[in-house]
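Lab notes, practical 5.
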Amino acid sequence: PRVSPGRLPGVFYNTGHGHLGWTLSAATAQILAAQVEAAERVSMAKSPIMQAARETTADLHGLGFVNRPK
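Output from the prediction step:
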């Protein structure tokens, strides 16, 4: 089977199981999920939205946002 990221970001393959599709599907899904999770962590770390989220915090009393001290 092919269980790997594709050439483009966000594209992953879990294919080619042939007649063992039902037998191998759970194991290869776990492998692929770990690959997607790792790629998402890298992608989210570089995201401007996540960078801004690290610099702000929710003000639970006023339900607004405040800048975190640096």
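Observations recorded by the TA: The helical segments are 21-46, 48-55. The mean pLDDT is 77.
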